[in-house]
Structure formats: C-alpha cells, structure tokens
C-alpha cells in the first residue's frame, strides 16, 4: 500500500481522512493535540521535527490539514496565525519538494471578499481578515513553489461530531442539547457547506487519478446560515418545539468581530468539467452527519 503522512490530523477533517483512507493506504497521522489513539505528536510549526518525521516515514504523499480556523482567535493572535497557517505550509512545501512527493493543502472559501456572490476555481481571491489572508498566502506559496500539488478549497465545514466539530452545526446542536428552544440565526451570510467525508472521498479520487492543481470542493447547493439552521431543526423533528429568531450579523458583532464575507459560495467548476465531482447535496450530507454523529440528539 502507498503511504501518506497526514499532518494536523487531530481535527474534524483529519477524522474523516483517517476513516476514508485507512483501508487502502498506510497512514501516519500526527497533530499537536493527540486526542485519538491513531495519532502521534508533531508540531508542524517546528520545521526540523516535522521534516524528520516525514523523511523517516518516506511517504508517497504529504497531506497538510491543520490550521487555526477560529477567526476571532486569528484576529487577536496574528503572529501565531501566520506561523501556523502560512509558515507551517511553507515547511510542508520544503519537505514535499525535498522528497519529490505531491502535497495536499486545504484552503477555504473564506479567501474571497463576498462581493461577487458565487466563485469558481478561477476567480481571484481578496481576503478581508487575518485568517483568510493567512490561508490565501499558504495557497499562493504552494502554487508558486510546487509542481505536484492538490489545493482544495472547502466551504462551511461540518464533520467530526461533538468532540471535534467547532463550527456552526455543532454550535447549534449544543444549544439544542442544552435545552435552548429559541435560536438566533443570521440571515445575511451565504455559503456552501462541506461534509468532511465527502471532501475526503473526492480528494481520494483526485490523487488516484493524478489530477494535480487547485480545486473548489464543496457540497452541492447554495445556502445560508438560516437555511442550515432550519434544516437541522427539521431533521431533528423539532419544528414544533424550537423557534428561530432571524437577526443580522450586527447582533453578534461583539462575539464575532472578525470581518466575514457576506457570501462564501463556491462552485466546483473544475471537478464538474473533469466529471469527478462526487460532492452530494448539503442537505443529504447534513442529515447523514446528524444520524451518524448525534444519535443522542435524535
């Protein structure tokens, strides 16, 4: 079996990659937070240690997954953000080039400013916050310095369940679990959810077919935060028990003060043209996610 070194695998995306790749590949998964028995420790910001582990393992691919994704943390800690989200990616590029192996880098829909509304793979990014800028700089470094790479842009990530999901779906589920019967949801943020398992499966197709390059990789269907919340409530069968109060982003400006684009909607144009887009409708993925990870809520 071919070997993959997966760095920053302790989060929601790493959990899906481990599940989707472990049967067909030999894996070495590492993270600074060793929160599962299939993880080993590595701080990929430490170039020498990162390089030592990867070189000793001699993988066929290097997957670089980890990043700071809390936008408020990134605004308050720019140096740590750039060290983690940008310079660590440079470390991965140096290592992959030395071993002459392909690198997988995870980018984000957040690198766009939202002015256009919907973005395909060739639209020019314009990041408006430190998190987005740090991710875009990583994306640019990979593209400019590697011959064989897979850069995949995710949207609103969902996956990992209560222990690893730090995003919108789990935040809503925690409120419901806590007995909250009135949810305040914004009506002015639009995007495309991305189920981690669909994402990992589509990456597998890319690497097995050797389609190097930059790809948007999100679930099918444009939507909003409000629609996602409504779908969660309906999927749980709680329409008669939970009400949704519609608010604007201004309502949460103290808690979520980092600039965010009004739209992060991506179109998987390149995957579609290559006829390898297996990303399902976001509603289907959301319901599968809830059924597989939130049985205590159902």
SSE layout:
Layout: E1 3-7, H1 12-21, E2 26-31, E3 39-41, H2 47-57, E4 61-64, H3 71-76, H4 78-99, E5 103-108, E6 118-119, H5 130-145, E7 149-154, E8 156-158, H6 161-164, H7 168-177, E9 182-186, E10 190-191, E11 193-195, H8 196-209, E12 213-216, E13 223-224, H9 225-235, E14 243-247, E15 263-266, H10 269-273, H11 282-293
CATH architecture: 3-Layer(aba) Sandwich
Which spans of ≥5 residues are poorly predicted at pLDDT below 50? Answer: none
**Helix proportion:** 40-55%
Count of helix runs = 11
Explain this structure.
41% of the residues lie in helices and 20% in strands. The protein is α/β, with parallel strands linked by helices. It has a single domain, classed as Rossmann fold. The strands form 4 sheets. It has a 7-stranded parallel beta sheet with strand order 3-2-1-4-5-7-12, sandwiched between helices. A 4-stranded mixed beta sheet has the order 6-15-10-13. A two-stranded parallel sheet has the order 8-11. The longest helix has 22 residues, at 78-99. It starts with a strand and ends in a 5-residue tail after the last helix.
Features:
298 residues; alpha/beta; Rossmann fold; 4-stranded mixed β-sheet; 11 helices; 41% helix
Q: Gist?
A:
The chain is α/β, with parallel strands linked by helices. It has helices at about 10-20, 45-55, 70-75, 80-100, 130-145, 160-165, 170-175, 195-210, 225-235, 270-275, 280-295; strands at about 5, 25-30, 40, 60-65, 105-110, 120, 150-155, 155-160, 180-185, 190, 195, 215, 225, 245, 265.
């Amino acid at each position: 079996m071919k070997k993959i070194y997966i760095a920053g695998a302790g989060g929601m995306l790493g959990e899906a990659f481990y599940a989707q790749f472990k049967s067909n590949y030999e894996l070495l998964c590492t993270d600074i937070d060793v929160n599962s028995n299939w993880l080993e420790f590595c701080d990929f910001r430490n170039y020498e240690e990162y390089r030592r582990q990867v070189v000793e393992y001699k993988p066929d691919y290097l997957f670089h997954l980890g990043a700071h994704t809390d936008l408020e943390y990134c605004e308050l800690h720019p140096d740590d953000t750039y060290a983690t989200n940008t310079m660590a990616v440079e470390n991965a590029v140096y290592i992959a080039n030395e071993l002459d192996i392909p690198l997988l880098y995870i980018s984000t829909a957040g690198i766009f400013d939202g002015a256009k509304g919907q973005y395909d793979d060739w639209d020019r990014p314009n990041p408006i916050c430190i998190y987005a800028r740090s991710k875009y700089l990583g994306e640019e470094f990979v593209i400019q310095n590697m011959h064989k790479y897979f850069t995949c842009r995710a949207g609103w990530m969902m996956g990992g369940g209560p222990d690893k999901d730090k995003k919108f779906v789990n935040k809503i589920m925690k409120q419901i679990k806590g007995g909250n019967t009135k949810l305040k949801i914004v009506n002015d943020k639009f995007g495309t959810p991305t189920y981690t398992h669909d994402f990992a499966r589509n990456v597998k197709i890319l690497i097995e077919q050797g389609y190097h390059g930059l790809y948007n990789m999100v679930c099918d269907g444009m939507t909003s935060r409000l629609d996602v919340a409504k779908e969660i409530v309906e999927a749980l069968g709680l329409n008669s028990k939970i009400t949704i109060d519609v608010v604007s982003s201004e309502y949460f400006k103290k808690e979520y003060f980092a600039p965010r684009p009004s739209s992060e909607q991506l179109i998987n144009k390149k995957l579609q043209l290559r006829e390898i887009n297996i990303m399902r409708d976001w509603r289907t993925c959301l319901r599968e996610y809830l059924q597989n990870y939130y049985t205590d809520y159902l």
